[in-house]
Every structure is written in C-alpha cells, then in structure tokens.
C-alpha cells in the first residue's frame, strides 16, 4: 500500500488524472473502473481538460462503474449514468458501447449482475479501479456487513449513506433505498486500486481503513490485502493517520508529492 500525500482536493484530482492518462496512453485497450460522488469530480474535470488539449484519446478505453441506484433510469438526473455522462462521458471520445454501468431498472436483476461480472472478465479484468470511501467505510455501495466474497449484487443502502447522498436529491425520501454494486471480491480482483480521499470529514474513515483489523463491518479494511493500492489523500484527510504514523513500524509508506 502506498499513500501519496497531497495538499488539497485539486492536487489529488490532477495527480489521479495524470496516472490514468499515463495508463491510457501506454495501453491499447485499457479497462478502467470508475466511481461517482463528490470525490472524483475534479479527476473527471482534469481528464476532460487533458482530452481537450489533445494529450489523450479514450477511443480504446472500456469503463465499468462501481454502482447504480435501483429504480432510476439513465435519463433520471440523479442516476449515476446521468452523472457520468454529464461529468465525463459526454465530453470525451469514448465509444458508448465501451461504457458499462449496472442497470438500475433491470427486470432481470440477478442475471444482469452475473452478466456485469462476465463482461468485466471478457474485457480482461479491470486494470485500475478508482474508489472513494464512505464515512462508514463502504467501497462501491458495499455497506458494513457485506461479505468480502461478494460479487456484483443488489444492496440495501444504510440510513447514513442515504443521508450523505441526499444532497443530490430534493429530499431524503427521494433517495433510493437500494442500489446495485460491484462486489468486494470484484473490486479486489482489479489489478490496481486508486483510492481518492479528501477533506477532514473522511479522516476517521481513512484512518480505520488502513489501521483497523480486517472486518466486514468496515469494508475498506479489505484494501490492506490488495497488493497494488495507491491512496491519494490530501492533508486534511490524512490528519488522523499522521497523528500516529511511525515510518519504521507501518505497513504502508507515505510519500509526499508536490506539484510543479
Ligand atoms: C460511488 C461510490 C461510493 C462513493 C462514496 C464516497 O460510486 O461507489 O462508494 O465513492 O460514497 O462518496 P463521496 O465521494 O461523495 O464522498
């Protein structure tokens, strides 16, 4: 596990973007796992800027998103498909058929979850999975208590996650109660994981993710077992980790990256 410490949200976004751009430039058919929420918005803005500069093309890229709400179709402004179109896909040259999100309005939900898994396999697996972290340690929409062996599945959202995400809806009552999420085992099969964490609000979650014993009650602890995790976190998000960090005793390394 490697931690890259950056000053703020902007630096986190630009550094994450440069890692993805480099991967896309160096590979013919890269497969990238994407997340929604506030955390990757700056990353997507930076990817669009790189595309507009002509630094990168997404023609060969295949994407798989982590999750989608159940009951929202893709034209619904609060669906994750809509978010992704608006924040990234509509502004770059990725072919539509190479974009994948779970189908929130499927009538064959179980079959669709199985197909989602096999589509990831057919694409050769995910090279780099971008993750954010929930306040309760969720990754994707894998809430506390989800099996570490889980595959793409339907989940009940917890009250705290619905509350945190209600900012995108006109009222809490409108936040769906279920979602479809890539499973934890699916996420762990990604060749590389890029976890982005910004802000003081996430300091406790990040601390627990990397220091607490592995527990399905705090799903992000599983990342401690992945051989290729890079965490890009800003100073505020790292504040609690740094309080007790001892380089000689830690299982992870913190590297400071300063932008030019
Ligand atoms: C989003 C996702 C979630 C978010 C997490 C953090 O696709 O899978 O796990 O990454 O809820 O959300 P933000 O970034 O809004 O704090």
List the helices and strands and how they pair.
Elements: E1 2-6, H1 9-26, E2 31-34, H2 41-53, E3 62-65, E4 67-69, H3 80-87, E5 99-100, H4 109-122, E6 128-131, E7 153-156, H5 159-165, E8 178-181, H6 184-188, E9 192-197, H7 203-211, E10 229-234, H8 239-243, E11 253-256
Parallel strand pairs: 1-10, 1-11, 2-3, 2-6, 3-5, 6-9, 9-10
Antiparallel strand pairs: 4-8, 7-8
Helix pairs in contact: 1-2
The protein binds fructose -6-phosphate (F6R).
The site of fructose -6-phosphate has 14 residues, from loops.
Overview in brief:
With about 260 residues, this protein is an alpha/beta fold.
Core attributes:
Rossmann fold; 8-stranded parallel sheet; 11 strands; binds fructose -6-phosphate; alpha/beta; single chain; 3-stranded antiparallel sheet; about 260 residues
The name of the CATH topology is Rossmann fold
H and E order: EHEHEEHEHEEHEHEHEHE
CATH class: Alpha Beta
Helix share bin: 25-40%
Distance between the termini: 25 Å
Instruction: Supply the CATH architecture.
Output: 3-Layer(aba) Sandwich
Tell me which ligands are bound: fructose -6-phosphate
The whole-angstrom Rg is: 17 Å
| Contiguous helical run count | 8
Oligomeric state of the chains present here:
single chain
Strand content: 15-25%
Count of folded domains: 1
Mean pLDDT across all amino acids: 96
Spans where pLDDT lies below 50 across 5 or more residues: none
């Amino acid at each position: 596990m490697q931690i890259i410490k950056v000053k703020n949200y902007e630096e986190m976004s630009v550094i994450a973007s440069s890692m993805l751009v480099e991967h896309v430039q160096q590979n013919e058919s890269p497969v990238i796992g994407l997340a929604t929420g506030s955390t990757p918005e700056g990353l997507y803005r930076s990817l669009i800027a790189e595309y507009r500069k002509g630094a990168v093309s997404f023609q060969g890229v295949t994407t798989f998103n982590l999750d989608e709400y159940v009951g929202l179709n893709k034209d619904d402004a609060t669906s994750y498909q809509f978010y992704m179109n608006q924040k990234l896909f509509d502004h770059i040259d990725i072919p539509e058929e190479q974009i994948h999100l779970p189908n929130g309005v499927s009538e064959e939900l179980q079959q669709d979850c199985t197909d989602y898994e096999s589509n990831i396999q057919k694409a050769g697996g995910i090279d780099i999975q971008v993750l954010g972290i929930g306040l309760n340690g969720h990754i994707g929409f894998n809430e506390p208590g989800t099996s570490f062996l889980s595959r793409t599945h339907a989940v009940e959202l917890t009250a705290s996650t619905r509350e945190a995400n209600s900012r995108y809806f006109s009222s809490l009552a409108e936040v769906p109660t279920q979602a479809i999420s890539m499973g934890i085992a699916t996420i762990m099969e990604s060749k590389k994981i890029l976890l982005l964490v910004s802000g003081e609000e996430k300091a406790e979650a990040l601390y627990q993710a990397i220091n607490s014993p592995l527990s399905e009650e705090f799903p992000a602890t599983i990342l401690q077992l992945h051989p290729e995790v890079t965490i890009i976190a800003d100073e505020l998000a790292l504040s609690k980790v740094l309080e007790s960090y001892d380089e000689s005793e830690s299982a992870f390394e913190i590297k400071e990256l300063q932008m030019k």
